[in-house]
Amino acid sequence: MSSEPISLSKALASFDTLWSPRIVTRVNDYDVRVAKVEGEHVWHVHDDTDEFFLVLDGELHISLREPSGERTVLLPRGSVFTVPRGTAHRPYAPSAASILLFEPTGTPTVGDRHDEIPDHVDSTTGHALGM
Q: Most CB within 10 Å of its CB: which of 8, 13, 43, 130?
């Protein structure tokens, strides 16, 4: 990891692929990832970890399947939300958005269990930042 400050705007400008996060740094055993998103991700579950979202630009919706039923949370720019481990969820961005994710290194973007993965979603544990 870099020993110099990392500009998130430069990191985001270094790639165009949607739903394909880049690892900007690591904190202990966690990745800090940035991603460009638009449209729907895939319903998925992380069995052993929570998933933290910070909306850097645009707007993100996260649909959740909870014991009380299905609901959707709306995250405008500057909002944070944590999806609890074991909760089925599907992120969706109605238009172009940028997000920051904080999760254990090696966590797959499609979780441990998921619906069929569409072509526009990258099943990855994060890509190195190529700035």
A: 43
